[in-house]
Amino acid sequence: MKCRRCGEVAVIDLPRHNAAFCKPCFLEYFARQVQQAISKFRMFARHHRVMVAVSGGKDSLALWHWLASHGQPTVGLYIDLGIAEYSRVSRERCEAFAQRMGLQLEVVDVRQETGFSTPALAARVRRTTCSVCGLVKRYFTNRTARRLQVAAVATGHNLDDEASTLLGNVLHWQMGYLARQHPVLPAADGLVRRVKPLFTLTERETLAYCLLQGIDFLEEECPHARGATSILYKELLNRLELISPGTKHQFLLGFLRRARPSFSQAEPPPELGACRECGEPSTAEVCAYCRMLSGARRADDAFATKENKGGIT
Amino acid sequence: MKCRRCGEVAVIDLPRHNAAFCKPCFLEYFARQVQQAISKFRMFARHHRVMVAVSGGKDSLALWHWLASHGQPTVGLYIDLGIAEYSRVSRERCEAFAQRMGLQLEVVDVRQETGFSTPALAARVRRTTCSVCGLVKRYFTNRTARRLQVAAVATGHNLDDEASTLLGNVLHWQMGYLARQHPVLPAADGLVRRVKPLFTLTERETLAYCLLQGIDFLEEECPHARGATSILYKELLNRLELISPGTKHQFLLGFLRRARPSFSQAEPPPELGACRECGEPSTAEVCAYCRMLSGARRADDAFATKENKGGIT
After folding, report:
1. In this complex, which of A232, A244, A265 lies closest to B243 when CB atoms are compared?
2. What residue of B is the nearest CA neighbor of A267?
3. CB contacts, 8 Å: A261 with chain B
4. ipTM, 2 decimals?
5. Distance from C-alpha of A307 to C-alpha of A303, rounded to nearest angstrom
6. Does A213 share its domain with A309?
7. What CATH number should be reported for the domain holding residue B105?
8. DSSP structure string for B45-80
9. Do A188 and A211 lie in a common domain?
C-alpha cells in the first residue's frame, strides 16, 4: 500500500477518500480537515483563547494536541465525575498530557462541587448516570468557560459521534435536537460558543493521529456507556460505511446542507434567562442543574431522617 | 404463550405491541390495522373500485385477499416484467389466486408492450434492472388505472418497506422523496391516487396473514433484488427493533406526524403536464418511459446496423 500523495509506504488507508497515506501526508490530511472545519464554519480566530473539554480519550486529546501544536491559545478542562477507577485513570492521563505539553489544565471535581459522585447523584434523583453526566458536564463546562472568559469551548466530537447522534435524532424525530445539531452552537444569553473542530474526521482517524503523535490516551470507554444505543448506532453506520464508503460523511454533511434549514425554521431556539439560584443560563426559573442538586439533597435528608428514626426497612 | 385478548393458545407474538394472539384475534388485529389506515388517511370509500397491484408475493396477495373478502370492489393488476422463471411463476400465482377467489385480474406484458423484457430494456439503456423495473411498473400501473377508471391504486407496501425506504431517503437526504413519502399520494394531473393500506403492518404480520388464510404466494424474491441496499436497511432496522420493539413504527409515524410537514413546505410537488408521445403525466415534454423506450430502440437499431456491416468487434 503506497501513499497517494508521495508514493512512500502508507500507514493508513482511507476508503472513503479512496486514498492511503504515509505518516507526514496523513498528518497533513488531518490538519487540512481541522483547518477547513475551523475556517469554513468560522469556529474561532487564531488569536482567540479556546477551552478544550478533555476526557483523557483519543478524540479530546488529539484535538488539544493539534490546537496547541498549531499555536492556538488553549486551556484544558477536565471534569472529574467521580466514576471510581475510570475517573482516576482518565484524570491522570489529562494531567500527564498537560504537564508534558506545558499546557494549563483546569480541573472541576464534581464530588467537591456537589458533595456527590455522578453515579450517587443519579441514584438519588432516580435518573441514569449518563443523563446526569451530560447535565453536569454541560453545566460545569459553561460555568468554567464564562469564568475564564474564553472565546469558545471546543469538544472532540468526531464524525462517528455526530453521525450516530444524528441517526438517533432521526429515528426518534427529535425535532428540537435536529434543529440545533451543528458543529457550531453560537454564544447566546450566557451560553458560551461551542465548536467541534474534528467533526469531519472519523474515530479511526483520530485514533491514528494519537498513535502517530505518541499521545498517551485512555482506551477504555466509561463503564456506564456499555450497551448504550449510541454504540449500536455506530455499529450500524459502520456496516453501511463498509459497503458504501463515505456514507457517514454524506449523511452528516447532507443533513447540514439540505435538511437542517427546514428544521431550524420550524423549531426556533428556546429563550434563555438566568437561573435564580446560580445565574447560569436556563429556560426555567431554576436551572436543571440546581433542581437536580436540590433533589439529590432532599433525597439524602429523607434518608438521614428515616435512619435516625430507625425507620429503614 | 396465550392470546392477550381471549386467553386461547396464541399462534403469533407481537413484541412491539407487547401482545400475542390466537388465529381469530390476530385476524381481528390485522383487520383493525388495515381499517384504521384506510379510514384515518381517507384512502378510499367502501363503494370505490380499487386496483390492487399484485406481484404474487405475500404482501400484495394479503392486501387483495383482505380487501376482496371485506366487500371492497377490486380489480387486480399483474405486470409481467419478463424476468425469466421468476415472472412465469409469479404470474401463475396471481392468476391462480384470482381464479380461486373469482376476481378480475388485468395482465400487462412488458414484452408485448415494448418488444423487450425488463432486463433487456435495462441492458440497452445501460441502467440497472431495478431502476427500469420501477419506471415500467409506475408507468403501466397508472396507464391501466386510468383506462379502468378506478378510484385508487393500492399497493402492498408494509411497515418494513416504508421504514427502509425512509431510512434510505434520510441517509441520503433526498429532500424531494422525503417531501412526498406518505401512505397516500393524492390524484393530480393524470396521476391516479395511490394508497398503501398495509403500511402499519410488518412483513412478519403479512406473512402470518397469508399462512393463516392459506394464500399460496411466491416466497422467492426477485433475483435482481439480491444485495439491494433496501435489504440491508431492513436488516439494520430489524436489529434496532429487536433491542427496542416499536422502533420502525415510531420512526415512520414520527416522520409522518412531525418531520414531513417541514419537508413538504420546503419542497413543493413538481408541476405535471401530459407527455407529447403517450399522453401520460410527465414533468418533461416527453415522459421518462417514452424516452427510455426510444433509447432502447435506438440501441437496438445501432446494434443491427453494425451487424449488417459486419462491424461488431
Report:
1. A232
2. B262
3. 266
4. 0.88
5. 6
6. no
7. 3.40.50.620
8. -TTS-EEEEE-SSHHHHHHHHHHHHTT--EEEEEEE
9. yes
